[in-house]
């Protein structure tokens, strides 16, 4: 084989290897954060409106996005008063609440399967005085109708992002922005990847825009 070809293959291999390694490290970091006592021991907020029993176990454990990273996610998505935001797997509601409170989104929805977190998020929206524009829906995110969204935020896991990808591409309008914290969407190349410094580590943010025509390999 030609020397230059071998060199190119080696460089590409190392590049893909480091990306895979970075992805694995981020997943390990995520799993460690999910076990952290500060995440596990927060007590549920008092009930706002009744919730249903949890329909099934979550696909991803609860790990909150640090507030400064939330701000960066919404800035990267360029959220304005024209936007309707959906946070899929919304935890304590910090992303939809911030979208309305600090970015003036016209409405924001948090979709969350865990009833304790649904209650906590509803209480947080009331405390922040935004419950007229923030709705926390207790639902499996795979069942959510996304047709109204103009911005979608995710902090899930790589395999869940990939499982969700066909739904995002089918239901979202062209031009809708998607921002994912720490995890990519496989073959769907992001428009932008940004590293941001959080309180204890670096976070990676991925941004996509839903295309007019969806390539066959992504459906
Ligand atoms: C990593 S946390 C992210 C929370 C929030 N988006 C944030 O960034 O702070 C993932 C959340 O997704 C929720 N979740 C997991 N599987 C879900 C599903 N199938 N439907 C709805 N919510 C789900 C979990 O309960 C958890 O609160």
Automatic annotation (TrEMBL):
GO terms for molecular function: methyltransferase activity. GO terms for biological process: methylation. The keyword Metal-binding does not apply. Residues 32-64 are annotated as: Disordered. Residues 81-195 form the Methyltransferase domain. InterPro entries: FAM173A/B (IPR026170), Methyltranfer_dom (IPR025714), SAM-dependent_MTases_sf (IPR029063). This is Methyltransferase domain-containing protein. It comes from Gloeocapsopsis crepidinum LEGE 06123.
């Amino acid at each position: 084989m030609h020397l230059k070809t071998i060199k190119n293959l080696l460089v590409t291999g190392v590049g893909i290897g480091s990306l895979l390694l970075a992805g694995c490290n981020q997943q390990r970091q995520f799993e460690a954060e999910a076990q952290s006592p500060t995440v596990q021991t927060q007590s549920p907020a008092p009930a706002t409106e009744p919730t249903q029993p949890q329909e099934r176990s979550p696909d991803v454990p609860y790990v909150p996005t640090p507030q400064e990273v939330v701000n960066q996610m919404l800035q990267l998505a360029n959220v304005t008063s024209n936007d309707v935001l959906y946070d899929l797997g919304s935890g304590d509601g910090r992303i939809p609440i911030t979208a309305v409170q600090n970015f003036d989104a016209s409405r924001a929805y948090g979709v969350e399967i865990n009833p304790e977190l649904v209650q906590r998020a509803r209480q947080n929206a009331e405390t922040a005085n935004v419950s007229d524009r923030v709705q926390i829906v207790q639902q499996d995110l795979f069942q959510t109708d996304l047709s109204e969204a103009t911005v979608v935020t995710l902090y899930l896991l790589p395999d869940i992002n990939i499982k969700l990808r066909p739904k995002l591409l089918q239901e979202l309008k062209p031009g809708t922005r998607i921002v994912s914290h720490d995890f990519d969407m496989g073959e769907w190349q992001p428009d932008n990847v940004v590293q941001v410094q959080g309180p204890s580590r670096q976070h990676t943010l991925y941004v996509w825009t839903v295309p007019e025509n969806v390539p066959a390999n992504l459906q």
